[in-house]
Amino acid sequence: RAFKAATLADWDAAIARYLARDFAGAEAAFRALLARFPDDVPAQLYAGRCRRAAAEGVPADWSGVAVFDSK
Q1: Higher-confidence residue: 3 or 54?
Q2: 61 phi and psi, to 5 degrees?
């Protein structure tokens, strides 16, 4: 619980950048979280999503929701 409380504001800021399509800024924010807490799996996941989105782009109707089409 202390971990979540300590990172909540930073997490919210990183997610806001991600949803605003500021993928470079969001990745930097997630990496900053990972510098403090390297085992934060959701931050690892989102940092990777940011990197891919920055490299590949996202569709005009992108909402930030991940859709899995295979298992």
Answers
A1: 54
A2: -95, 15
User: Phi then psi for 13, rounded to 5 degrees?
Assistant: -65, -40
The packing angle between helices 2-19 and 41-56, to 10°, is 10
Going by C-beta distance under 8 Å and a sequence separation of 6 or more, which residues neighbour residue 11? 33, 43
Looking at the chain, list the stretches that DSSP marks H as alpha helix, in order from N- to C-terminal side.
2-19, 23-36, 41-56
CA 22/CA 24 separation, integer angstroms: 6
Binned at pLDDT 50, 70 and 90, residue 2 comes out as: confident
pTM: 0.86
